[in-house]
Amino acid sequence: MPYDSCHTPLDPEPAVALAALDAWSREPVTPDNLAARQERDATSRPRPTAGELRAGGRFEVTELQVPGPPDGPVVTLVSARPSGLAGRPRPS
User: Fold this and answer.
1) pLDDT, tens only, 15-37
2) 59 Cβ partners below 8 Å, 6+ apart?
3) pLDDT band at 1; cut points 50, 70, 90
4) What is the DSSP letter of 7?
5) What does pTM read for this prediction?
6) Any bridge partners for residue 78, and if so which?
7) What is the pLDDT of residues 32-82, one digit of tens each?
8) CA quadruple 6, 11, 12, 14: dihedral positive or negative?
9) CB-based contacts of 5: which residues, under 8 Å, 6+ apart?
10) Burial letters for 74-85: b for 16+ Cβ neighbours within 10 Å, e otherwise?
11) Beta bridge partners of 62
């Protein structure tokens, strides 16, 4: 990757990963391109089901639905926490 005097050079490992990204992936996210980026992301890889996220009981998975923006769709949130942590402190 050529040195760009406007940017601080990166460590070699992240630089290799960034060089492997296509131009679209390196494009900044803006209000104008957000919807297209979300659509491409949604179709480019499968989304795991709640059952798959549970990983055979290793995680407690809860799906919540909350109101979206006015005149917008309901938003589904997924919470996945390691199983068996009752009584132990964890981030909330």
Assistant:
1) 777 777 777 677 888 999 899 98
2) 53, 80, 81, 82, 83
3) very low
4) S
5) 0.44
6) 63
7) 989 998 888 888 878 888 889 898 889 999 889 999 989 989 998 988 888
8) negative
9) none
10) eeeeeebeeeee
11) 79
What are the helix (H) ranges across 12-88?
12-20, 23-26, 34-44, 50-54
Alpha carbons within 13 A on the beta-carbon side of 2: 3
- 55: its two tokens: 């990983």
Torsions phi, psi of 38, nearest 5?
-65, -40
- Token duo for residue 79: 């919470």
33 CB contacts (<8 Å, ≥6 apart)?
Answer: 27
